[in-house]
Amino acid sequence: MDGIDKDDQITYEQFLRENQNLVYDAVIDRVLVAETQQRISEELQKGLMKGRQGWWNPTVCTLEYLKSMRYDAQAREDETSALALSAMIVQRERTA
Questions:
Q1: How many domains does the chain divide into?
Q2: pLDDT tens sequence across 31-89
Q3: Separation between Cα atoms, residue 85 and residue 21, nearest integer Å
Q4: Residue 5 has pLDDT above 80, yes or no
Q5: Distance between CA atoms of 58 and 96, rounded to whole angstroms?
Q6: Is residue 3 part of a domain?
Q7: Most buried residue among 21, 68, 70, 71 by CB atoms closer than 10 A?
Q8: Does residue 39 belong to any structural domain of this protein?
Q9: Are 74 and 82 in contact (CB under 8 A)?
C-alpha cells in the first residue's frame, strides 16, 4: 500500500469488521474466485486431453501466440478460454 506506514496497515479481516456493509461483496468475491478456479481447471484439463501442452515454456508456446489465441477466444465470445489464456499470459509475464 503506497503512502501508508506499515503500522497503519490493517488486515483484510480487520477491514471487513470495520466495513460490515462490504461483507457480502467479500463473500461474492470468494465465490467468483472458486468458480473461476474450477472453470480454468476444467479448461486446462480439456486442452491437455487435446494434446495442448507447454503454455509455460516460451520455446513451445510464445507469449505472442498465447495473446493471439486469447484474441481468437474473445472473438468467438469464449470467455472461459479467454480467461484461462489471460491467466497464462499474466503468469508468463510475471516470470519473464
A1: 1
A2: 999 999 999 999 999 999 999 999 999 999 999 999 999 999 999 999 999 999 999 99
A3: 34
A4: no
A5: 10
A6: no
A7: 70
A8: yes
A9: yes
